[in-house]
Amino acid sequence: MVMVKSHPKFSGVYIIEDIEGRKLATKNLVPGFKVYGEPLYRVNNEEFRAWDLFRSKLAASIEKGIADVPIREGSYVLYLGAASGTTASHVSDIIGEKGKVFCIEFAPRVIKELIEVSLHRKNMIPILGDARFPMSYRYLVENVDVIYCDIAQPDQAEILLENAKIYLNKKGKIMIAIKARSIDVTKEPSEIFKREIDILEKGGIKVLDIKRLDPFDKDHAMILGGYT
Fold it and tell me: What's the longest Cα–Cα distance across the chain?
C-alpha cells in the first residue's frame, strides 16, 4: 500500500511511504511523463514523482533539514546550472502553471536533454547561456523571487551575486550548492564553505542556513540566504 502526505515543513513537497520505505516526492505537473526514470505513484487520482536524494542537491538539502525552501507555487525562479533538468523538473512541479523557472545551462550537449524536458513543461524556459555573463540573457529572463545556483565554478558565489544584482527581487531568496572540490581541492570543505559565506555576505546576502549534504553529495553544502 502506498501512503502519501504533504511534507510538514515545505510547500509542494510530499512524503511517500510504500513497501520500499520513505521517499520525497513532488506532484507531477505532467502526469504520465518521467524525466529521469523516477518511479511514479498514483494516489487518489493524483500522480507523484519520487525525488532522488542522490541526484538532486535540493532534495538532499530538504532531507538534511534546511531551514526553508523559498520555492513555492507561483514562484519565478532563475536556475543557474540546470543541466539536463532533473532538479529543475521538480522545481517545475512545485511552482505549478503560474510559476516560471528560467533554466540557464552552458553545455550544448546537455541542453538538448533540458529542451526535451521543457517541451512537456511549459513553465520551464531552457536557455543556452553562460551564468558568468548575466546580461547575455536579459531579454529572456524576468525578475525572480528565487535564484537557485548549482554550477561547478571556483567563483560560483560571485557569479550568483552578479545575477542577483540584475534579476533578484528586493525580498528575494537564494539557494546555492557549494561544491568545495570545484573551488579548491587543497583546502578543507568547511574552510571553503566559510569563505563562500563571507563572499555572499559582503555582497549583501544574509546567510540564513547552511547544511552539509553528505552522504548524498560528498563535500557539498547548501546555503540559504536573502537580501538584508
Answer: 52
- Give the percent of the chain with pLDDT over 70: 98
Domain boundaries, the chain: 3-52, 58-227
Q: How far is CA 87 from the centre of its chain?
A: 6
Q: How far apart are CA 72 and CA 55, in angstroms?
A: 21
Flag whether 87 is marked binding.
yes
Question: Is 86 known to sit in a ligand binding site?
Answer: yes
State the sign of the Cα–Cα–Cα–Cα dihedral 93, 223, 186, 195. positive
pLDDT given for residue 173 in this prediction: 97
pLDDT digit string (tens) for 51-81?
999 999 999 999 999 999 999 999 999 999 9
Per the CATH hierarchy, to which homologous superfamily does domain 58-227 belong? Vaccinia Virus protein VP39 (3.40.50.150)
Q: Does residue 151 have a known ligand-binding role?
A: yes
Q: Does residue 20 or residue 14 have the better pLDDT?
A: 14
- pLDDT tens-place string over residues 33-49: 999 999 999 998 999 99
Instruction: Give me the CATH code for the 3-52 domain, please.
Output: 3.30.200.20
130 is in an annotated binding site: yes
Nearest one of 178, 164, 148 to 70, comparing CA atoms: 148
